[in-house]
Amino acid sequence: MNTVGHFINGSTTEAAERTQDVFNPATGTVSKQVAIAGKATVEEAVAAAQEAYKSWRNTQPAKRARIMFKFRQLLEDNAEKICALIGEEHGKISHDAMGELTRGIDNVEFACGAPQMLKGEHSRNVGPDIDSWSEMQPLGVVAGITPFNFPAMVPLWMFPLAIVCGNTFVLKPSERDPSCSLLLAQLLQEAGLPDGVFNVVNGDKVAVDTLLTDPRVEAVSFVGSTPIAEYVYATATAHGKRCQALGGAKNHAIIMPDADMDNAVAALTGAAFGSSGERCMALSVAVCVGDEAADRFIDKMSTAMQDLKVGAYSDSSNDFGPVITEAHMNKVNGYIASAAEQGATIVVDGRNPKVAGFENGFFVGGTLIDNVKAGMACYEEEIFGPVLLVVRADSMEQAMQMINDHEYGNGTCIFTRDGEAARYFSDNILVGMVGINVPLPVPVAYHSFGGWKRSLFGDLGTYGPDGVRFYTKRKTITQRWPSSGVREGAQFSFPSN
Questions:
Q1: Which of 53, 330, 408, 420 has the most neighbouring CB atoms within 10 Å?
Q2: Are 410 and 352 in the same domain?
Q3: Judgement on whether residues 139 and 259 belong to the same structural domain of the protein
Q4: Does 488 fall in a domain?
């Protein structure tokens, strides 16, 4: 059986303390093994990155950008191969995998602008014969710890920008779908990236803890669940590292009585059930203002859900695929059961769907649950499955209060024809990414991604301008060349211009 190893200093290796099964979630069968790195293997990758940094940090930004331009082209040339790996190990339908990769490529394109982003600032004559300027210098060795749900896009949020800023990188992807990261490493090598600048280690908590505590690692980027994000942030910062740790979400959509209901239903169908709900930006709660709006929404949504197709990644006519593991399938089904036990109404039950030819796959069908209230487990916790909850509110103010009271503040949206309501919502909602009649308000690559509250630990979001700030440190130089023959005596007051 094939074993997925690591990529260290330009070469693949299968060094492992042990191996772990990688499943095809559509069939429920083991497709390969992944090597789980021990502490020594991770330290080897960090050492390779540290050595490569000595020369990479002084490589011209334009040369770094040219490598990234080539990498971008190789991603497009190998798109089908990358998407097949995503489908085989994650279960994502081919068109969804292509959408993920495309958004990742957008971030590579942004990174290609390194010469412009790293110019710094300059001021002449800030004092007598004194000039001052700033430089954006790299940090050194940085690390990324990425989740299973976006095996291509989330790593591409991180390492292209870190690398063009002059850092070297160690990536620890999810051990559940590890192959994509190895292919990305090989394509970077083909694009001309020097050995050691980008390294991949597959592993579990041992690998994570090694990266969080190794003094040679200057910064850590993380995307995953909130409990782990909080742990990563606390551990990394306690060891003197810069850290951005993106956590979980419970994204609400407010459905106003004046909303274009057909548009809202179509938008939320994709936002709630796409990628089996395994997105941190998935729209998992519809807060309908008024019973009339709720009844219309549920009637139209339950009708639309009759056409949903769940199945294997290889059939592009499917809307979404399986969830990642059998354990996660059981967890999602458990949330559905608990909702009914706690008084909610299951309108469409997606448990145990029949998928011909894939009877042992980890499938959960689209599920719609009405009369959900705060305090229910299905409402308070992130389900990360194809489950849409409906909460009924008496007013827009009550709906907004529910969102503001929730511990997560990742993404939200409102469906309305009222510009005043939309403006009030966007000004006063305590959430980091907001959509107006847009269900998945994921910022484009030249903005930055990041939530509020317990959805983000750290001061800076990922990619875009925040990414440049995160992966660089500002150095300000103040320089004076006194005019010939001019000498000043000692000054004991604080200098000013």
A1: 408
A2: yes
A3: no
A4: no
Query: Which amino acid is residue 186, in one-letter code?
Result: Q
Distance CA 198, CA 167 (A): 9
> Which residues make Cβ contacts (< 8 Å) with residue 283, sequence separation at least 6?
251, 252, 253, 268, 271, 272, 388, 411, 413, 439, 440
The answer to whether 243 and 457 have CB atoms below 8 angstroms apart is yes
**Does 340 lie in the same domain as 281?**
yes
Backbone angles phi, psi at 227, to 5 degrees: -60, -40
Check which CATH number belongs to the domain holding 45 and give it: 3.40.605.10
Residues 325 and 403 in one domain: yes
Between CA 48 and CA 13 the distance in angstroms is: 14
Instruction: Say if residue 264 is in the same domain as residue 238.
Output: no
Q: Which of 165, 280, 288, 413 is catalytic?
A: 280
At a CB cut-off of 8 Å and minimum separation 6, what does 490 contact?
none
In a domain, 403, yes or no: yes
Phi then psi dihedrals of residue 488, to 5 deg: -115, 150
* 280 flagged as catalytic: yes
Residue 487 lies in a domain: no
CATH code for the domain in which residue 270 is found: 3.40.309.10
**149-203 pLDDT, tens per residue?**
999 999 999 999 999 999 999 999 999 999 999 999 999 999 999 999 999 999 9
Helix 291-304 and helix 261-273, axial crossing angle in degrees, nearest 10: 60
Residue 21 and residue 41 in one domain: yes
Q: Encoding tokens for residue 469? A: 């700030």
Note whether residue 138 is domain-resident. Answer: yes
The burial class, CB within 10 Å (0-12 / 13-18 / 19+), for 357 is exposed
Question: Which domain covers residue 11, as residue numbers?
Answer: 3-247+455-477
**Can you tell me the mean pLDDT for 137-146?**
98
Q: How confident is the model at residue 424 (pLDDT cuts 50, 70, 90)?
A: very high
**pTM, to two decimals:** 0.95
- Do 55 and 148 belong to one domain? yes
Provide the domain count of the chain. 2
Distance between CA atoms of 193 and 195, rounded to whole angstroms?
7
Specify the pLDDT at position 492. 80
Are 88 and 161 in the same domain?
A: yes
